[in-house]
Amino acid sequence: MTIADAISIPVILYNIPGRSIVDISVETMARLARHANIIGVKDATANLLRPLQLRQALDRPFNQLSGEDGTAVAFLASGGDGCISVTSNIAPALCANVQSAWKEGRVQDAMAIQDRLLPLHDAMFCESNPAPAKYAASLLGLAGETCRLPLAPLTEPSREKVRAALVATGLLD
Q1: Fewer Cβ close by (within 10 Å): the C or N end of the chain?
Q2: C-alpha–C-alpha distance, residues 102 and 82, integer Å
Q3: Catalytic residue ranges
Q4: CA-CA distance, 123 to 159, in Å (whole number)?
Q5: What percentage of the chain has pLDDT greater than the value 90?
């Protein structure tokens, strides 16, 4: 609340207990959502009850964005609004097509694209992010693979996993 009070731009909460060790409860989010500047949440819990529970706890529109690529379609089906994606850095058109297909009511198309992306979703988290994404971007000629310290380059088995996922997804020969 202190941050939202101090600024005039919209705030999106980031609930990522896997990295922060703190899970923002539905009750806390509902309380924070009363602030006009707090407009949504990136939820990286993979808990598909969250969008349902949060919608019931709120009395105003609130953007609920998945932070877990692998559950993006299921999150939408649970009442979510979209996804802030790691995979979209590597396959932006495919990730956008998942969202568009869902919004247009083409559920089977959204699921088919999600299935196609699954090996890439998994590969993007085979080691600490952003190393897999940076390596994938380097294979596609989009950026270098170097990460700042203390992150290290990917191990050879992870490099193979990322390369295989790009091939399986049709992004690399």
Answers
A1: C
A2: 10
A3: 14, 42
A4: 9
A5: 89
User: Hey, what are 112's tokens?
Assistant: 């088919």
- In this model, does residue 147 exceed pLDDT 90? no
Taken in order 138, 142, 146, 151, is the CA torsion positive or negative?
negative
The pLDDT, as a whole number, for residue 11 is 96
First to last CA, the chain: 49
Please, which pLDDT band fits residue 16 given cuts at 50, 70 and 90? very high
Contact in structure between 41 and 13 (CB atoms under 8 Å): yes
Tell the burial category of 156 from Cβ atoms under 10 Å away from its Cβ (0-12, 13-18, 19+): exposed
Query: Cis peptide leading into 51, omega within 30 of 0?
Result: no
Distance of alpha carbon 25 from alpha carbon 116, whole angstroms? 32
pLDDT at 129: 83
